[in-house]
Amino acid sequence: MSTVPGADAPRKLLLGLIGRGIQKSMTPAMQEQEAREQGLRLHYQLIDLDATGAGVDDLPVLLKAMRIIGFAGFNVTYPCKQAIIPLLDDLSVEARAMGAVNTVVNRDGKLVGHNTDGSGWAWGFQRALPQADLSNVVLLGAGGAGSAIADAALRIGVQRLTLVDLDAVRTQALADKLNEQHGDGRVSASTDIAAALDGATGLIHATPTGMDKSPGLPLPEELLRPSFWVSEIVYFPLETALLKAARARGCPTSDGGGMAVGQAVGAFELFTGHKADAARIDTHFRSMVAAKGATA
To answer: Is the pLDDT of residue 24 over 90?
Structure first.
């Protein structure tokens, strides 16, 4: 038996989240609590670009520092999910297909990018709206989260998907890529949300609008109709302006908490090699939301 104090204790994993305006993120608490439940030692650090005055251009220096410090891995959120790709040593099949990374694992000094956004969104969406009509869906936002969710939406059976974003070039490029991967003609691109929603059976919102840092509605409220469901990815606040307006107009809804939990489950398993208890993480997440609401 070792006589060195703490020699038999499990290695402490150092993880983090890189993004902008992330001080209210619940990811650290979800990851640390699930680790404690499984007898693991884990510390999760926020790396807020706003708080440090850094930007996307500082990612090379930041990643070098994380390698030196010994981070076991880290999550990535807006606005770094696509910008980080050229800086990584390798990508998973999913991340390469989606063109975006939200989870990076340090494997023996090599940084490997993964994406659990798509599977995380699908997990939460299918739990909340299991009978949703997937025949004609609009996805608002063609950035990092949007590209991952678009891929996942097609995988779970969306028949026709219209991507809407103000960046017409980026949106068309994503549509072309998805058609090549999933079958020609299933995906189209648009910059006109009103036209896209005409005849839609569902709306997925994948932009930062509605977050505490970017409050408001991502589209005119009058475009919301009870004939289609609404899926939100923003989770702080959990009850966004979009969800409030959609519910007031009779739309079935799915909140951003499902995706937050689903992506955290996938990331935890990549970081630790241990299977996460999704129901336990979801219960913890909802309890944190309720507590924050009570003290707000």
So the answer is: no
**Is 81 one of the annotated active-site residues of the chain?**
yes
Q: How many CA atoms lie within 13 A of 85 on its CB side?
A: 17
Query: What are the structure tokens assigned to 289, written together?
Result: 């939301």
- Distance in angstroms (rounded) separating the CA atoms of residues 197 and 203: 8
Tens digits of per-residue pLDDT, 141-167? 999 889 999 999 999 999 999 999 999
For the stretch 202-219, pLDDT in tens is 999 999 999 887 899 999
Domain that holds residue 179: 118-255
Q: Is residue 295 predicted with pLDDT exceeding 50?
A: no
**136 vs 101, 158, 164, 204, CA distance in Å?**
27, 7, 13, 11
Instruction: Give me 192's structure tokens.
Output: 């006109």
CA torsion sign for 123, 129, 135, 141 is: negative
Q: Which of 168, 216, 219 lies closest to 197, judged by CA?
A: 219
Looking at the structure, do residues 93 and 147 belong to the same domain, yes or no? no
Instruction: State in Å, rounded, how far the first CA of the chain is from the last one.
Output: 51
- Alpha helices, DSSP H, located in the chain: 27-37, 49-52, 59-69, 93-98, 117-128, 144-155, 168-182, 193-197, 241-248, 257-272, 278-295
Q: Is 206 helix (H, G, I), strand (E, B) or coil?
A: coil
Catalytic-labelled residue, pool 12, 24, 81, 244: 81
The DSSP bridge pattern shows strands 161-164 and 137-140 to be: parallel
* Residue 161 covered by a domain: yes
Phi, psi for residue 25 in degrees, rounded to 5: -60, 140
Is 231 in contact with 125 (CB distance < 8 Å)?
yes
Residues 127, 93 share a domain = no
Name residue, tokens 């999913």.
94
